[in-house]
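Aim 2 progress update. The chain analyzed this quarter is reproduced below.
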Amino acid sequence: MKIRALHLSDLHLSTKKNDHDQHTVIAALCKDIENLRESEDFDFIFFTGDLVGKGSYSEDYRIKVKEDFIDKILSAANLTQDQFFLCPGNHDLELLARDKIYESGLQNALSDRINVNEFISEHESHTSAFRSLEKFNSLSADFGSTSCLKRTPLYANFLLHLHGQKIGVAALNSAWRATGRSNDQDCGTLILGERQIELSAKGLENCDVKIALVHHPLNWLSPKDFASTQRAIARNFDILLHGHVHEGDGLSLVAPHNNLIICGAGCLYQSRDYFNGFSIIEINTKENTFHQETREYFHGRDCFDVSVRFAGGGIFNSPLKKNSEVNFVLPERSVQRICDEANRQLVSSAISDVAPEDIGDLFVEPRISRVSPNQIDVDIASQGKTNLISIPDLEKDPKNFFIWGGKESGKTTTLNYLAVRATRATALSGNVAFCIDGRNFSSASSILSAFGTFCDGALKRSEIERALETGKATIHIDNCPLDRNSLQYQNLVKFTKLYSKNKFIFSAEDSARITLVEQALPDLGVNVSELFLLPFSRRQVRALIKNWFGDAADESSHILDGVLRVTAKLQLPRSPFLMSMILWLNERKIAFSPVNYATLIENFIEGLLEKLADTNFRSEIYTFRIKQHFLCELAAKMSRDPVHSISRLDLESFAVEYFKARPQPKAKPLELINHFFSRGVLLEIGEDVRFKLECFREYFVARRMLDKPDYLDECTSKDNLLKYINEIDYYSGLKQDNIELLSLVAHRLEYASRAVDLNITSNDYSRVASHDDSILDSLRDRVHDLILSRPNNQEQEAILDDFDEINLHTQKNDKSENKEEKINHSSIEADQIEVVQYDSKYSDYLKHLILASMVLRNSELVDDNTSVEQIFHTCIEHWSRNIIFALVQLEILSQDRGSFTDEHRNERSLKKMVSTVIPAIFLAMVIEYLGTAKLADVMNRFLETHANQELPGLITVLLYAELGLPKYMDKIEDFMERPNVLGGSRDLIFTNLLTNYMFKKLSSNDQTRIEAFLAKQAKTYRSSTSTGGAEKAAFIQQLRDRARTIKISSPDSIKDK
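Predicted structure tokens:
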């Protein structure tokens, strides 16, 4: 049996008496249908919503709809009203007919899947909910009446007979909760309802083909409705036809028990020069085929023709059913458990009384860049746009991705969100998704156990392996191991190579990039494209506030201003975690005035542990101090574990021993532990217990350092110092006046510098900038020693011994077969172990420099100004040496690879890249680790007393300017007046000021001075001999035009801090 039908959608019929353009397109459509009918007749017309532009449907309007469109289409197709089927779209609603008070109550009542299903089960008695649909339903009742099984205010279903076959059609309603808000604000909020699908499918069970009509694509549904509804559609229908997306598409999505084909028709009319299109579908049950041809209107020719933009020849073909395909399905209970687990990891989950519980309702899509943050400003300044990728594009792209992000920048939340979306789509895709912590890759057994834990045991290990073997999995790996000498890294690479058919999305903290040569990723077993998470823009902060507090947030503008003031004051990037902390403190009306990030964390945790509100949870026993002390001791214990976790059993034993050593007659250890879980301080994942966020553990370790000097000594010992970098950062931020610590980290920095023996000083900058080969020759061997070193024989044997012990242990304790053994027994040859990171001495040197800079930044209460100035000089000197080393390293490695010929090396563009981009990368690090306005006086004195040191002076003056400190343009101009300033320094200042001019909000005075400075430098670059003001004025006008264009197209600064 073959069915041939027209799929039309989104006419938006005008209320105008004579809309010439729309009539022209309709006439062309009718002519095209007549021509197509000459080759073969049509059996049905399916119209998927937005028949009209406004849903008033007055009597005159109804007549117009029939006469101007429906009657003409039916005549052209040679069909009757009983062969025309339609469902409502959002434009078909008469929104003014709604009762606002009733609507508000209904919105609150439809709070979850259970309530939605209960309401739809009884929807025929809730007539007020469908007042906006009454006129549409009255019109639609004129069509398909002879085959209609049931028609309700919400849906209609039909049983058709054709060529001895039975065809089931359900006209579903996805628009009944639409609001008509502009800019697609309904997307992600609509409700279709699992129960609507089930009710509409009654009576169609024995049909040969079952077709569902709906207006909105499924991704417009609310997260609370999305998963259960798509599963219900996949269970009950073969084909889903939708509209609303103004392009045609055909997508074969394999469901667990059948092949659900989803097709969009495109928009029939928007304007004459818009993409106006429709589709022809052919279903052949005998040959088990589905065929779709998409056609579009061509304004210049005034006719419809094949839409080649849709597909080759405008054709999409798919098998109708694929029952033999290997597919996977998770029970609804497991899907919900996975979603609940992701929700539990949200900062807001256990503490907020108003924030949504579901990650889909709270999540704000981050800005994800295809290029590093250091390159973004250059792209915008030169091209006026950024190379960003959206979440949907990331999901659709078959490539593997590696996402870099800053500390607490939302990497884990983003991966959880992606995994939840993929899990909710399992019913349609037949694929499964996993989100795994890379720290769990210590053995093959732990890897597969982590997969089983994520899917709540819904899939057996053999089923997980089958999904991996057949490429039916999307695997998200957080905290990706990058150290090639680690067991986790080796197991990861073996795993990805073994299951390379699947899609992988990795993430790691971007601080790890400093240990990678040329910041290049090591081999991960599969090819990856790197992405970068950017801080929130003002628009995204506003969206998070709206999601957190809801539409009724009366003080949203006030909250937004407060959030931005805090981030500006502390010079912090707007990370999702930072925003969540501030929003919760606002929600609870907790007063806070942080002086740095550590004190903001302190404010947040004190609120979390109810320091000022110890009236609940047996506060007479578990005082704030007891809770804090317990967590400090627990954090210290967890910190001794490589992955900073503890088993539940060990946690309970720890709690018992804690109170045994510190008797509290009424204390119940398990009660306190459960309290920390409920407050979102601790998190249990599988068999492991961790602090919900790493910064919580780091903070409590820092608190213990404050309380116990001997513990501080232990953590700052020579062997431990670099293990506790973040903890010491928090400690110094809380303490702020520890001159001994500041002196210690400065001393350790000097010691690490001597150990790495770069044998360069900041004065060598001029040699590098002038491409003096003598410095390359003197450092070539040192570069090779520090970068290209391999383990010696003893180190190689130790690594292989470690692997052998792990494999023996796994074989003895795990009887699982097949892939696990392949992971374990993948050969590891000594010559395969290659170190792509820097030599440990150089990595340690960099870490010491970062630590010294952070402690100096936090030491605002140290009263020894001489020491502070000396240590600032020390840090700036070492940042300068690292810039020089990076420049030399790039040149030497390029020569080694033969990628730069002598001719290329002399090109000016390449010299500029080497002399400006590398310092810009390090400058960003200096701003992050050393940037604070409280060092303004120190920077001023440094610039006055070190006028002969160009690179340290350049770093200092740009740091001063980036912080927006008083009279920063004076400092820049004074620097530029120094004798013999190098071209690379001029380039870097020019680029930095140009970027700030384009993206930062400037005072009129600063704007004028920057314009004059840039114009002067641009004239120098062009070697212009003009002395008049016309050239300068023209250049400044170009600047203003470019800046205006950027700010219109991207009003939220890309360079948000």
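The two ends are 63 Å apart (CA to CA). DSSP finds 41 helices and 24 strands in the chain. These observations will guide the mutagenesis experiments scheduled for the next reporting period.
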